[in-house]
Amino acid sequence: MKVELLEATEDPERVICTAARNDYMGEFVGDQSFETIMSTVEGETMDERKRTLIGHLLDHGHFGPFEHPQVTFAIKGISRSCMAQITRHRHVSFDVQSMRYVSFDDVDPADVEEGEMVVTPPSASDPDWVGRNQQSGSVDEDTVAKREELFQRSVRQSVVDYQELLDLGMPPEDARFVLPIGTEVNMVMSMNARMLMHVADMRAAADSQWEIRDMTERILDLAAEWCPITFEYYEENMKNRKNRLAP
Fold first, then answer.
1. Torsions phi, psi of 171, nearest 5?
2. Angle 210-226/193-203 helices, nearest 10 degrees?
3. Are 247 and 29 in contact (CB under 8 A)?
4. Residue 182 in 3-state DSSP?
5. 169: left (phi over 0), alpha (psi -120 to 50) or beta
């Protein structure tokens, strides 16, 4: 999996603070300098004033200003299973690699074991992996070896059958039906800062599926660089409060 930030609102916390101050100012913020807009907020420096205001907004549930900054991520190599989970968030915009128009006829089935084309879950090879609906995940080495062999054999055969169907003239949109739900896909998604925090509430939680949790944590790492005060406060004070930030 790979996650990259494609585009984002420049100086997002200036936008957040300006929008928030608009609600309580008699003057039109479009005619005021940012220094004037923030002059009554507690703090010696502008960074301190931003921290004061952003912390106050998040503490008091004033989430509207966080809907103004937008961010777009490119995500490579997540499973169709993970894609199905993240696309349930209806306030996020998505473009997903199409398996109707993109055929994977150049993948060597032998490479599937190396993670090519199909995502391999940790439980396929980790004898101590504990899934969400398991009391215990520990198995002996022979059992986990059989589990891994069966998993790889199954996905490898699916790739072989898929490519043979393409060779037999079946259209990619129909041949793809034999591929597993772990088949890799690339995606672009955009959202505002509030929605990103809500997604993180749901998908970075301890009981989330391992893959979407990994993806969300990577997104949060990039968000911390893009919108640092907001996501530092979120990580320290708000993370995993499910549905708190739901639109």
1. -65, 145
2. 150
3. no
4. coil
5. left
The alpha-helical segments, DSSP class H, found in 136-190 are 141-167, 172-175
pLDDT tens digit sequence for 42-76: 999 999 999 999 999 999 989 999 999 999 999 99
Q: Please pick, among 88, 203, 241, 244, the residue that the annotation labels catalytic.
A: 203
DSSP code for 171: -
| Each residue's pLDDT tens digit, 199-220 | 999 999 888 999 999 999 999 9
Active site residue 194: no
State both tokens at 175. 């041949």
Sheet harboring 2-8: ordered strands across?
Answer: 2-8, 70-79, 184-192, 93-96
Percent of the chain that is helix, strand, coil (3-state, to 5): 50, 15, 35
Rounded CA-CA distance 206/158 in Å is 32
**What's the whole-model pTM score?**
0.89
Other C-beta atoms lying within 10 Å of the C-beta of residue 224: 15
